[in-house]
Amino acid sequence: MTEELSMRTGQGSNNGRRAALKQIVGVAATALASGTVLAQGQNKFNLKIAISLPDSHPTPTALKAACAEILKESNGRLVIEVYPNGQLGSDTDTLSQVRSGAIDFICTAGQIYGNLAPATSITGIPFAFPDYPTVWKAVDGDLGTYLRTAFDKANLTPVGKFFDHGFRQVTSSSKPVTSPKDFVGMKIRVPATALQTALFKTLGASPATVPIGELYTALQTKVVDGQENALPTIEASKLYEVQKFCSYTSHMWEYFALVGNKRNWAALPEDLKALATRVIDAHALKQRAAHEALTASLEAKLKGAGMQFNKVDAKPFREALASAGFYAEWQKKFGADGWSLLQNYTGMLG
Known about the structure:
Elements: H1 2-9, H2 15-34, E1 37-38, E2 45-50, H3 58-73, E3 78-83, H4 91-100, E4 105-109, H5 110-113, H6 132-139, H7 142-153, E5 156-158, E6 163-172, E7 187-190, H8 194-202, E8 206-209, H9 215-220, E9 226-229, H10 231-236, E10 245-261, H11 262-266, H12 270-304, E11 308-311, H13 315-323, H14 326-334, H15 336-346
Parallel strand pairs: 2-3, 2-4, 7-8, 7-9, 10-11
Antiparallel strand pairs: 1-2, 4-10, 5-10, 6-9, 6-10
Helix pairs in contact: 3-12
């Protein structure tokens, strides 16, 4: 490359150009090593977001809209591509790749992050949040600050406000859930998380880990009898085709967070970081409203597809968990500080 430059300029002395080239190569190598690709010295950055949810779900939709706005407002300097449907791998695989810097961002659930940084999963304590006003007061307040600190300790950077992943409901192909005893012996799919696995084991079920992309087939072939997700995920994944009953357990509320490799994020200029954060904040708020509105509309649609719905009294489930020592055990795991912050919003648990 130096020889080619020398031929073009016709100059014999290449010392200055060699020094300049070494500097350019060094910058490019640093950018490539960090996973943040700087395009041909034009101050253009190309980043990737991995998310396992289907394209039609409100969260990938919001991320794509945010990235389009970021591209426009940055005059093409910041290009962020969203890869939905688990195109880049499962949640656990892509989280590992984000930690290494091979992928810039992942957007997934607090319970998945909890496998790496346990404190980030505290919002998933079963039957903790009674409603959305309580949820948003907590995650946009002191509890949210606590979560962000936990990400930072894991060398990850959350970007923007938290997205809504909804209150999770139980579906089954065999029977509705009306009381804790209905879980006894049920083969239920759960994500690869300690908290959800412990919850259903405590209630007598047989939890099994299945990636979201394989869930439909697992239900169809009876590898598992049931699963638990928010209604927008049930609808987007077409689980109504292989599940008959939906029980409004609302046993867990969950967020999705856009989380980046700390080094890759730090490699961006400050103005682009500020722009991305501002736009993602705005679209996270839109996603929350869209997710809640969609959830409210889906019962009628899913009933039309053949699903049967029933309401569930949470009190017997909380009592069963408390008497089994579930809340006491998880209070010890999360620690007094995090548990106290959670109960500031939810009231006493256990």
